[in-house]
Design brief:
Blueprint: E1 2-7, H1 12-22, E2 27-32, H2 36-43, E3 61-66, E4 69-75
Parallel strand pairs: 1-2
Antiparallel strand pairs: 1-3, 3-4
């Protein structure tokens, strides 16, 4: 299992989650949503990412994935 982590710079919740992930053996990739490549990547998962009451995507958003796909999507609302 690995992960995709979508973050913004200067995001305290993002920094805390990155610290937790660094202490695990799970490998993954971080996508900084300031970058165009990252914005394109998150679009691939919009159908499974939960939005908040205003329709925004809570950041950070963590997608855990395995060979079968994405079994879990977690964000700052959980």
């Amino acid at each position: 299992m690995d992960y995709l982590l979508f973050t913004y710079p200067n995001c305290q919740d993002c920094a805390e989650l990155k610290k937790i992930l660094a202490e695990t053996e799970i490998e993954g990739r971080e996508y900084n949503l300031i970058l165009k490549e990252s914005k394109l990547k998150i679009r691939e998962y919009l159908d499974i990412i939960k939005r908040d009451d205003k329709g925004a995507i809570p950041i950070p958003t963590l997608l855990l994935q395995d060979e079968a796909g994405v079994p879990a999507v977690l964000n700052s609302r959980e």
